[in-house]
Write a structure and sequence with these properties.
The complex is a heterodimer of chains A (114) and B (113). Chain A has 114 residues and is mostly beta strands. In chain A, 0% of the residues lie in helices and 49% in strands. In chain A, strands 2, 4, 5, 6, 9, 10 and 11 form a 7-stranded mixed beta sheet that branches. In chain B, 0% of the residues lie in helices and 51% in strands. Classes of the chains: A mainly beta (114), B mainly beta (113).
Chain lengths: 114, 113
């Protein structure tokens, strides 16, 4: 079965700590995305990548970093510079072709600050 | 910039009632429009989509029509079930910005037996 996996399901961060959220897809999709979801709000784009070794900032990139060393993997690091990291983080992917604009989403990682 | 506005929730209905969740958008181009559904503690699932004006997307009894003249994409279902209880998100895609999705704030639907 093809899909997107995110791990862990829950993640706890201490003050001053960087944490990394994993996102893996076996759909052979070119483009991958990270969104943040806060209660009562829609999703906001953090970073996206359309091709290996390239990525772009989204609307709320400050305090986050990403890498795209492999097509199937797009990890997100929440750095200590992100002052309000508690949220639900969702990874998504899609084929990078104009008519293929539907994004598939992973199950999400909930990040909590201790 | 592009944006999506959807009806505020929560919406509470009795089983078999009719559902309408309003969604309007602003966009400079010709985006595709989507409805995604999120069950508690889970990621988003695509419910339906429409890629051009007057297209109707449908799935699991839900429907939405892409109305360019009113810039709307309202979600409708004739008879809701308890299992439809979830949060519904309207979204548009912007291919010129890496295909990112722009979401409305979500509408929580609760269906009572």
């Amino acid at each position: 079965d093809g899909g997107i996996t995110q791990s862990p399901k829950y993640l706890f961060r201490k003050e001053g700590q960087n944490v990394t959220l994993s996102c893996e897809q076996n759909l052979n999709h070119d483009a991958m995305y990270w969104y943040r979801q806060d209660p009562g709000q829609g999703l906001r784009l953090i970073y996206y990548s359309q091709i290996v070794n390239d990525f772009q900032k989204g609307d709320i990139a400050e305090g986050y970093s990403v890498s795209r060393e492999k097509k199937e993997s797009f990890p997100l690091t929440v750095t200590s510079a992100q002052k309000n990291p508690t949220a639900f983080y969702l990874c998504a992917s899609r084929p990078d072709r104009k008519q293929q604009d539907t994004q598939n989403f992973g199950p999400g990682t909930r990040l909590l600050v201790l | 910039g592009d944006s999506v506005t959807q009806m505020e929730g929560p919406v509470t209905l009795s089983e078999e009632a009719c559902l309408t969740i309003n969604c309007t958008y602003t966009a400079t181009g010709y985006p595709s429009l989507f409805w995604y559904v999120q069950y508690p503690g889970e990621g988003l699932q695509l419910l339906l989509k429409a890629t051009k004006a007057d297209d109707k997307g449908s799935n699991k009894g839900f429907e939405a029509t892409y109305r360019k003249e009113t810039t709307s994409f309202h979600l409708e279902k004739g008879s809701v079930q308890v299992s439809d209880s979830a949060v519904y998100f309207c979204a548009l895609s912007d291919y010129n910005q890496g295909g990112k999705l722009i979401f409305g704030q979500g509408t929580e639907l609760s269906v009572k037996p």
